[in-house]
Structure prediction request, 236 residues.
Amino acid sequence: LLTGVSGTPQEKNISLASPTKVELTCKLDENSNLKNPQVTWKRGSETISHTIKTQNSWTIQVTISDSSHLGSYTCILKGEKEVSATFHLQVPKIEGKEKPVITYEGDIAVMVCKTEYKPKSWTWYMANGTELVPIDKILPKDKCKFKTPSANVARLEILKLTKADGGVYWCEAIFELGKSKARFELKVLSIVAPLKPFIAIVAEVAILVTTVVLCEVYSKRKAKGREKEFDQIERL
Prediction:
């Protein structure tokens, strides 16, 4: 990072699934106006020393043996101005579905999680208030199917949906360095839900037709009443 210097802090996410050693480098290009800066490396708010230095680059070597070594590592360069770059070391994120999964009673709901790296295992949960409960402890075995099309993909199918199946679900991938989750919201609609707009339109049309008919009947009665009045006047 910092090959081209600007006043905006730079950031980079680095996914790590298993223990490893990484080198993080901040480098200035030769044409940078920031000359002979004072360089500080920090892990969170803790200052750490860089292990390798050249004319325009500063590097730290980090051994990631467990989750406690993950986090944000920042290099800060101070000169005529101050610039910084941050490396976020984290377990791989899971690709889920941001929008709600919407389906109907009696249908099948399908939720899929993907990750770039191979996890040790996958687990599916359903939210029960603030608590996450493994799905196999809530739903019967014949109600759901767990599939892993590949090592980095997990798929959940919920069969014969009812209103009670609606709610929040989570998939969790377990890596050597920690866990990562993705959230799903399942909405189960009544089978008549798609017909509601049509029913509403039909009801409006029926009311309109009834109103027109009543108006016609009233008009005819009123017209007959006037005819009778005219007949009586002519007789008089």
